[in-house]
Structures are given as C-alpha cells and as structure tokens.
Amino acid sequence: xxxxxxxxxxxxxxxxxxxxxxxxxxxxxxxxxxxxxxxxxxxxxxxxxxxxxxxxxxxxxxxxxxxxxxxxxxxxxxxxxxxxxxxxxxxxxxxxxxxxxxxxxxxxxxxxxxxxxxxxxxxxxxxxxxxxxxxxxxxxxxxxxxxxxxxxxxxxxxxxxxxxxxxxxxxxxxxxxxxxxxxxxxxxxxxxxxxxxxxxxxxxxxxxxxxxxxxxxxxxxxxxxxxxxxxxxxxxxxxxxxxxxxxxxxxxxxxxxxxxxxxxxxxxxxxxxxxxxxxxxxxxxxxxxxxxxxxxxxxxxxxxxxxxxxxxxxxxxxxxxxxxxxxxxxxxxxxxxxxxxxxxxxxxxxxxxxxxxxxxxxxxxxxxxxxxxxxxxxxxxxxxxxxxxxxxxxxxxxxxxxxxxxxxxxxxxxxxxxxxxxxxxxxxxxxxxxxxxxxxxxxxxxxxxxxxxxxxxxxxxxxxxxxxxxxxxxxxxxxxxxxxxxxxxxxxxxxxxxxxxxxxxxxxxx
Length: 510
Ligand SMILES: Cc1cc2nc3c(=O)[nH]c(=O)nc-3n(C[C@H](O)[C@H](O)[C@H](O)COP(=O)(O)OP(=O)(O)OC[C@H]3O[C@@H](n4cnc5c(N)ncnc54)[C@H](O)[C@@H]3O)c2cc1C
Ligand code: SF4
Known about the structure:
Layout: E1 3-6, E2 26-31, H1 34-38, E3 42-43, H2 44-63, E4 67-71, H3 82-93, E5 97-101, H4 106-118, E6 123-126, H5 137-141, H6 150-161, E7 165-166, E8 170-171, H7 203-211, E9 216-217, H8 231-245, H9 269-273, H10 279-292, H11 298-322, H12 350-362, H13 367-380, H14 385-395, H15 401-412, H16 429-435, H17 456-467, H18 469-473, H19 479-487, H20 490-505
Parallel strand pairs: 1-2, 1-5, 2-4, 3-9, 5-6
Antiparallel strand pairs: 7-8
Helix pairs in contact: 6-11, 10-11, 11-15, 12-13, 14-15, 17-20
Bound molecules: flavin-adenine dinucleotide and iron/sulfur cluster.
Iron/sulfur cluster (SF4) binds at residues 349-351, 429, 432-433, 438-439, 442, 444, 446, 455, 457.
C-alpha cells in the first residue's frame, strides 16, 4: 500500500521503529507551516531551532534511504497547514494510506483527528516511542484523588524502571529525595563552567522568517546559534553536562546569578522535547555516571533524574488528564495584562530585568527564574493566566504546550486551584535575595515594603496573601504567614496594601 507518514517538528526520534527499515512504498512528509509559526508569537531562536533540527532530521532520513517530502516555509506549493498539505499530497500522489505519530499537544491532536475524519483512505496512528508513561497513566494512578502528588508518582517510576534502586526495593542512598542537601546560593567569586555552545549560522532561516512575514521577538542569534540541531549535537551536550555540570547540579539548582545564565543546568530540554534524545538514555547515563564516578554523589544524580523521570512525565500526565478544560482555568480570577517589560526586559527591578533579559537573549531561563522571578511577579500582579501562558509558550526554546501549560498555569500561577501544586509558588524579596545576587545593586531595596524604593515583591506578596487569606490559612505550609500578617498593626497593613495598589496601577513604570 502506498503510504504517507507525517513527522511533526517535535517528533525527531532518530531511533523510532519506523526508520529501522526503508520501504519503497512509504513516503515521509515534514513541513514548515504558518499555522505552527503563528499560533503564538515565538522567540526567533525557537522557530530557528525547530526548523534547523527538522531540516537536519529530513537530511538524515534521506541519507539513510528513506523517501522524504519536505516543505520549506516559502515553497510555492506549501498550503501552510498540515491538513491542506496532506490532502493535496494524497490527491496528487494517489497515496492509499495515511499514518501519523500521536502529537503531544491537544491542539494538533484535534487538528489531525479532524483531518483523519475527512480523508477517504485508512488512517493509522503510532506512538512516538519517546515517553516513559502512556498519556493516561498519571490519571489512572490518581483515580478518585482530589490532587496529584508528584512524589508518589516519582517513587512509582523509580520502581517501575528500576532506577537508582538498592536491593529489596529500597532507594539508593536510603532516601527517595535528596532535595534538602541542594538549594545553595552561588558563593561569591564562584564561576561555573561556560555553557556549551554550538556555532551554527542560521541567517538563512531567519531571513526566510522575515520574508514570510513571521512575527518573532528576541535575539535571533543568527551567525552563532547556540542550540543543538541534531542527535549527535544533543549527545555532545549531554556528555558535556555529565562531565562538567552534573557534579554540582543539585547544589546550585535553585541559585540565580547576575553573571551566569545557565549555571549548572543541562540545557537538554530542547533536545528532549523535540525527541532527539530519549529520556531513559539521559537517565541511564546519569545513573551510570553516579555509580562510576565518585564526583557525582547521589544528591546530584537523584536531583537531576527526578526532573526527567518525575516532573517531566508527571506534567504530561496532568496535561492529558485535564485538557481541554485546563487551558481555561483561572482559580483566582486574575485579569491583568502582562507588563510591557516582559517583552523588553526594561525595568528597574533587577531580578526581572536579568531573568527576562537573558530569556530574550538566549530563549532560556532555568526553572527557578521561571518560577520564582517571572512567574512569581505575574501571579502577584494578578495577571490573567492566558497572558502568562502565551508568554511562556513563545519565549522558551523548549516550550511545547503539554509541558509549558501545567508548569505555567498549574505550578506557577496556581490557576488550577491546587490540582498540581500544594501551594502557590509566591515569595517576597526575601527568597530572591537569599538565592541570588540580584538585589545587590538593584534600584529597589529588598528590606523595604513601603516607601519610594521599596521592593515591589514585598507589598505585592502581602497584598496577595491578604486577598487570599482563606486559602492560605488552610494550608499548613502557609498559615503561619497569615497569622504574622494579621498580627500586624492595622495602619501598617493599610499602608502595605496601598503601596501594592500603587505598584499595580503603575506597573509599567517599575
Ligand atoms: C513557569 C514555567 C514554565 C515552564 N515551561 C517549560 C516548557 O515550556 N518546557 C519545558 O521543557 N520545561 C518547562 N519548565 C520546566 C523547567 O523550567 C525547564 O524544563 C528547564 O528549565 C529546562 O532547562 P534545562 O534543560 O537546563 O533543565 P535542567 O534543570 O537541567 O533539568 C533537566 C531536565 O529536567 C526536565 N525538567 C525539569 N524541571 C521540569 C519541570 N518542572 N517540568 C517538566 N520537565 C522538567 C527538563 O526536561 C530538563 O531538561 C517550566 C517551568 C516553569 C516554572
Ligand atoms: S530588590 Fe526586589 S526587585 Fe530588586 S532584585 Fe531584589 S527582589 Fe528583585
């Protein structure tokens, strides 16, 4: 049967069983289409990275004897949507079967289901052979429970895949979680190894985007592109991480610094999310490095493995358990717009200026910057979760909705009311000052809550807590804060609330 098989831009799994053999009657199709470049405004590096990786993947398949049709964004016969291109290909080439790999995003899943119903030839779907859980596995595990607990899911995964396990079903090192040994600030004068760079020149793709009228933002990094484009690049990045960064990964996992943008983080999320790397191969390499190398203690290996084996799979499970309703959740009823400085980095708040500035420069910020700087400010400033989602989905090289949305709407904005997180991740300047050197040299004073140069995080934090007293007082990790707040003198509380209102009303001047 003459078969057409679709490969999406985030399905670049070099080891997929589809590619084990060549077949004369199978043609693969890959496409750069405007529906994908424009569903949200993207950072230029994100589109460049995906197109570059897709083109390299198509080349790899062709070199290995597969038939590939590749639509570039400006090809004359490109109808600019998956459905329209596929219908035309089937009609013009008389394909009698259509097959596709299950997409990870609800939007694309729906699009391909609708297309399949429209076609008059048989359609088959296949797994991407990437994830370690099925779409519905997390939901099944937590059937009948009000909230989902990552820690129990993670233990289940450790046992299921026998990762970092000691004899008799016990966790390696005697504990499941070594987070308490992590979370240090970067010591003064400490210099992490440099981020591993690639030096590609993608001016041509950037020019193409420009010529096709694709709206992007951020530094296109043309001339010196720093993200991996192939599986072998991704393996190089993984090896560099294990050798140079993993030994201190956990220790400085939560640290933030004015001068270093990726510290000891792996920067593997792009390679993982477009499937150039398999999560289990990354985990196994890290596990082996721990057993073979005394520099990599259990706290580092466990801390890293938890992110991929635990959080990454867990987020995907939450997404599929709750879509499409999850995309409309707004527990606090927040309604404000994202401040203009999220698009420019131009603000006197040094932490935001640095976290946003590096995101515009590199299409990257690490987890704590996303959660405790940009996400924290967005929720304290009562931003509509749609605005926040759109920004995160556009700006990061690794942003795909199945992982972006639970992290943003769920974990960071608490818009799901606690399905995913046990409490909102909000803080005053105290946490930021403890974990970074951002506050030194900032226009604002982290110790002040009211007055001209008072740090906005402080009054906004207390005002948020005041508004949501009922929720916080029921949370055993936060009720002491409500008690502290209520103990404060009424005039003092009033001036904090007025300060917060002033800042909210003048957010673009901060
Ligand atoms: C508001 C917000 C939005 C986010 N949006 C995305 C997103 O769009 N895409 C994305 O891949 N991650 C997202 N994350 C999770 C995390 O910030 C990134 O995975 C991480 O920063 C990627 O950098 P890294 O590869 O250097 O990670 P490392 O710190 O080196 O961690 C290793 C790997 O663990 C995985 N991981 C770590 N934390 C998480 C997590 N919370 N959820 C899922 N996987 C995780 C990633 O695959 C990552 O590559 C978001 C987090 C927050 C708070
Ligand atoms: S003082 Fe406030 S605004 Fe400035 S860096 Fe610290 S936390 Fe951020």
